[in-house]
Amino acid sequence: MVSANQASSSQGAKEISSSVNIASHLPRMAQLQPYTRAVVFPHGRDEKGRVSYIHLTFKQLDELSDAYARGFEKIGIRRQTRTILMVKPSLEFFALTFALFKVGAIPVLIDPGMGVKRMLHCLQETQSQAFIGIPLAHALRVLFPKYFRSIKTHVTVGKRWFWGGPTLEKVPLWEKEPYQMAPTDPQETAAILFTTGSTGPAKGVVYEHATFDAQVQSLKESFGILPGEIDVPTFPLFALFAPALGMTAVIPDMDPTRPAEVDPKKIVEAIHNHGATTMFGSPALLKQVARYITPRGITFPTLGRVISAGAPVPHDILEQFQKSLPEKANIFTPYGATEALPVCAIEGREILGETKKMTAEGKGICVGHPVKNREVHIIKISDDPIADWSDDLVLPKGQIGEVVVTGAVVTKEYYLKPEKTAAAKIYEKKSGQNRVWHRMGDLGWMDEENRVWFCGRKAHRVITQEETLFTIPCEAIFNQHKRIYRSALVGIGPANNKKPVICIEREAQDSGRDLSTLKQELLEMAQKNPLTEKIETILFHPSFPVDIRHNAKIFREKLTLWAEKKV
Prior knowledge:
CATH class of the largest domain: Alpha Beta
Structural class: alpha/beta
Number of domains: 3
């Protein structure tokens, strides 16, 4: 599917005349470092608990994905075939994804953690023609056939149970000649990636081959990534970037859908066993690892960088993790979204040395400067669609508004959701350029150094009769109390006349302690600050609901419903 917007927009990048296929990075790396491991996966443990690994080199991964690509064409998976891919992190996951890219098919990727009902509706929306999945995924397809009526071709990765179609073992054709990958256009759809739906229904984000290509380049430049590095990625979609960047992807022994419940020993094990130079993890995962390594004095002498995204990283976790790293190593907390990534980036040292103090004062969370080739502005807050870009929308520095971004990594539409696309995109046509601005759905402000400060989601702002309260600045005031793990501002009541409520989640060791004294202390803290002086209702929650992808963003919609019942 290539929309009119896709065909016309250059995203502010240079005009591209030749074909672009995101999979082309793999054969390039296979030539550069054929016998370097591309993907490493834990295979089992012996009686002493020692882990063994299986792997594919870049040459093997390239050849295997070539073989799968040939096989897919034979069974009807071809260019622009929308293909649901439901395979657990594995060697096959990498080979299958790159094979689909090589064919020019469109993999449809979705978080299984969002729940069966929501996942089925998302899959039905794509009207996909092919399905590649593990037996459990196929059982879902058979049990709920109405959601998969468009499927014509299905491949089982593993043992086939009570359905037809080939297994993956029957697909590959082991010819040694390189596969001639599809000469896809830069603006041709490469994949459909679903958002988590943490602030509304999940949406299918249309990725073009040029978008993926720009992301690879941006990650390389923003974080100084070089071929030959070793990465421990704890999120499957980010793991796919590693082979394209020439890094070895060491998949740790964990359930990627539950990063907050990870066994930290196994993350430490993966880093130490392979001398990892890079690690990606959500703040929830970093918290588990930091709390394990700190009392034990465990360090990571080989790590040169840690990248954490999905939500702000708590300052104490940053401090603990920084102590475990070599002197020159960096912790990066990039800012972005499925629709645009990366947008900004900041190093942990800058946070701890400078912006941490301002965050505690209610200024928001600094997410850093825009990365190279990204233009970011703060515009007037609006809940209505904005069809055309105007410089008049831009607010002066220091004022809180909506964060918007344009650049080559900015996606242009949601799949078959024109109303959602219209609400999230602003089109600019001037000076011979056709650019798309993405409305991040976040609120923030820009300082005099052009750094962006995040103040919370637009949908989560609380509009009272007298003022508008923003989540992150208000919560920072309450989070200073030593008994508080985190807080969440929600609003109950009619729109534009909401009652502000602060929900509190205490530190784990605070369980069983007196709440009346704590509540009084929090109310006194609120009264002393102009940001929170109008907040008079405090509720204690045992454990906040969080997003399914990173287990880090507070699911405020659910928390609001809970607060309404309590109040």
